[in-house]
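The authors assume throughout that readers already know how a fold can be written as discrete tokens. Each protein is reduced to its one-letter sequence and a matching series of backbone shape codes. I therefore recommend that a typical entry be quoted early in the introduction. For illustration, here is how one protein appears when written out as sequence plus structure tokens:
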Amino acid sequence: MTSQTKTENEEALAELAKRIHRCRRCPRLVAWREAAADDPPRRHRGESYWRRPISGFGDPLARVVVVGLAPAAHGANRTGRVFTGDRSGDFLFASMHRTGLANQARSEHREDGLRLRDAFVTAVNRCPPPQNRPTPQERDNCLPYLERELELLSRSRVLVALGSYGWDGALRAVRALDGEIPRPRPRFAHGAEADAGRWRLLGCFHPSQQNTFTGRLTPEMADGIFARARELAAQ
């Protein structure tokens, strides 16, 4: 891909990000994200919250795309960057750093110097949902944004789905782009692999505290998934 095409891709992703940031399609989620910003926990009092939907972030030439569930109410809803400023992001980016997909292991705010290498991180939903449970309509309202990101990330070949929700959302986005989905429909599991259109889909337990604190997802397990993603992307 030429540098001119890369620049065009960056500009198209930036324009899409602006559209996402203005979105107010889901009244329940708009109210929830703004209420969270208005009444933050003590550790974040006095901080200025982003309070808007979250766009994806990363290398416009990425071959690996990571698909999560949604931003955290006091993570990305506060910092304005996906998986930034919460424990899930700390775990995720540390693993991506160890496996060569990020230049540093921590992500605390938008200007902390984090750069992704051959990777792009995004989510199915762009606003934090109550109890991390978007409704089917809220999911469907957001899916076109994921579909468009995948269209623009024309070099991407591997999708890493974080949790069953990310897996389902990735499959729905691929199908909307006329990608072929195997039958029976592939089921999520940690380490599961499936062909989905032009992508290879990999399953990884979500790096939520309920998984990482209990040992259901260990650093070694996550590193194995991202090492496999890099291997597949290089084929």
User: Anything to note?
Assistant: The chain has a mean pLDDT of 96. Residues 88 and 105 are 12 Å apart (CA to CA).
